[in-house]
Design goal:
This protein is mainly β. It has two helices and 27 strands. Strand 8 (about 110) and strand 9 (about 115) form a beta hairpin. It starts with 9 loop residues before the first helix and ends with a strand.
């Protein structure tokens, strides 16, 4: 059986962008981002193959093609692996561009022109990364590639000396990673493609999915789509890279409007509260309901903020900042707080105008939670229509 080789036009473009180095902008990291909903596996690869050339290997799950070499030197599988299953991908030493490509199986998932990236889609992407001792490539990392847009790249680029993220508009956002010559688990959330376009990156998270604030948060441009996985390394006198434990998951929408963001800590119910918006984001419909669960059956307040922030507050985090609009007191029942927001109130008419962006969050008294005796949900970011 023959397989079509992935040939994304973005691959040589990625090489050119990375090779420029000086044209890439370095910007600071942010707070946190995490797609919310049910996680559905798309693809997984643990490189459970015999040692030797990777090209032609067709194990793992959720791929439409076997592995192909993306450079003149064969990519290898070596033992032992990093995830305790089989081996790991290793590019051989040298100073030539090297790497490997493989196509994802997109069937059964929302797509645009046959690629992942339909509006509103969210994904979780993770892998294990290491630059073995003595390796000094100019750039090295993992890319999500397609034929419709520039790729997203996660790794090291010229001039950065840091692991980070290169978006589809050519902006590099670094994050600090100690000892790149040690294995690291990289977890990435791509939330609300075509909407918020928010990327969160966690380095060595202690849980899966991560609940702590992300080590880096950034955004990517509209129009991003992908169908292929790429591992690329180039430059330097010894450009070896080890990759293992690759996983891609689709985040099925929870049925809530907007984009869940920020973090929430467990309250006295034993779980962290999530904020969900239902109804309609069209102001003229006057059909907007905010709910939070699980929460203690005590008094609380839903409040709106123009700015997205994440600051420690009480036993949790304040996620809605800037100009604040507070609703009336709500009393939770059965672990759920819910309120229909009256958009015809003069105050709301003056502020909730189509096109404006807001976060909404729930603040609840929690005397059984000790500490500050109050806690908060996460927030939902949305745009009025």
């Amino acid at each position: 059986m023959s397989f079509p080789k992935p040939t994304p036009r973005a691959w040589p473009a990625l090489s050119r962008v990375l090779a420029l180095g000086a044209g890439v902008v370095l910007i600071s990291a942010g707070a946190a981002a995490q797609g919310a909903g049910t996680r559905i596996p798309i693809a997984a690869e643990s490189f459970d193959y015999a040692p030797g050339d990777l090209a032609g290997a067709n194990g793992g799950s959720g791929f439409s093609t076997p592995w192909f070499d993306a450079g003149p030197v064969a990519t290898q599988v070596i033992l032992p692996g990093q995830d305790a299953i089989g081996g790991k991908l290793c590019t051989p030493g040298g100073d030539q561009p090297q790497g490997a490509l493989r196509g994802f199986d997109t069937s059964g998932f929302p797509t645009v022109n046959g690629e992942f990236g339909a509006d509103g889609s969210s994904f979780a992407f993770s892998f294990q990364f290491q630059l073995p001792p003595g390796s000094n490539p100019d750039f090295a990392g993992v890319a999500l590639l397609g034929t419709q847009s520039p790729p997203l790249f996660f790794g090291v680029i010229p001039g950065s000396n840091q692991f980070g993220y290169l978006d589809n508009q050519g902006t590099f956002t670094p994050t600090w990673v100690a000892s790149l010559d040690m294995p690291h688990e990289i977890y990435i959330s791509l939330a609300d493609v075509g909407g918020a376009n928010e990327m969160g990156m966690w380095i060595d998270p202690i849980d899966d999915p991560p609940t702590a604030p992300a080590d880096l948060v950034s955004h990517f441009g509209n129009g991003f789509s992908f169908s292929d996985l790429g591992i690329l390394v180039d430059g330097g006198s010894e450009n070896v890279i080890d990759i293992d434990g690759i996983a891609l998951e689709f985040i099925e929408a929870s049925g809530c409007l907007g984009t869940m963001r920020c973090d929430s800590n467990p309250n006295s119910t034993g779980s962290a509260a999530e904020l969900c918006v239902t109804g309609s984001l069209a102001v003229q419909d006057n059909n907007f309901t905010a709910s939070a669960e699980p929460v203690p059956d005590t008094a609380g307040i839903f409040f709106f903020g123009r700015d997205s922030i994440q600051l420690p507050f009480g036993n949790g985090f304040r996620c809605a900042g800037g100009e604040i609009l507070r609703e009336r007191v709500s009393i939770a029942s059965g672990g759920i707080a819910s309120m229909a927001i009256d958009l015809t109130l003069p105050r709301n008419v003056a502020n909730f105008v189509p096109g404006s962006d807001w976060d909404v969050q729930y603040w609840v008294r929690d005397p059984m939670g000790a500490g500050s005796n109050f806690n908060l949900s996460n927030s939902t970011r949305f745009t009025w229509e």
